Amino acid sequence: MSFDSILALPLGWAYLTLFVIVMLRANATYWVGRLLVAGGRRSPRIERFVNGPTMAKAKKFSDRWGVLAVPLSFLTIGIQTAVNLSAGALRMPLTRYLPAVTLGCMMWALVYSTIGLAAIQTVFFALASSPWALVALGVTVAGILGVRAFQRRAARARTERPEVESVGHTGES
């Protein structure tokens, strides 16, 4: 199903369609998380992914927000899949996960059936109709990637730099 076909639906049907799609996807991701942990013990590649930075970020988010991390993740960009995957990997009980994921899917479907898909369609239309919009997008993406690379390099330099001993009064007379 394409953006256009969903946008062409009446609002209620668009909402229901998006809700079903995201509910299936989120629950499948949860079960993949459960399977990854079971199989991860046998595969170094899966073990690295399960213990990687995205999953660590999702776990930190989940640790901070608890079961609310699941519905809140549907309002974020970049960790929704990892939160659902980590919920499965951490074996969140279905009695907690299902109500939380249902709420999250309801919120996500509301956002996307009202403003989300229209915004995406507007961006695609602008990119298709103007080469300058495509250039602007490329410059923006390159700028974001450059800033992120600079932040990573600066963070790495801070962690690699030895502690500087403070010079000053030692308390000796």
Would you give an account of this structure?
With 173 residues, this protein is mainly alpha-helical. The protein has two domains: 116 residues, no CATH class; 31 residues. It is 79% helix and 0% strand. It has eight helices and no strands. Helix 2 packs across helix 3 and helix 4 crosses helix 6. 20% of the residues are buried. The mean pLDDT is 81.
Short description:
This protein is mainly alpha-helical and 173 residues long. 79% of the residues lie in helices and 0% in strands.
Q: Classify the beta-strand content into a percent band.
A: under 5%
Helix content: over 70%
Largest sheet: none
By helix and strand content, what is the structural category? Answer: mainly alpha
Our count of helices gives 8
How many structural domains does the protein architecture include?
2
Q: Can you write the helix and strand succession as a string?
A: HHHHHHHH
Distance between the termini: 79 Å
How many DSSP-defined strands? 0
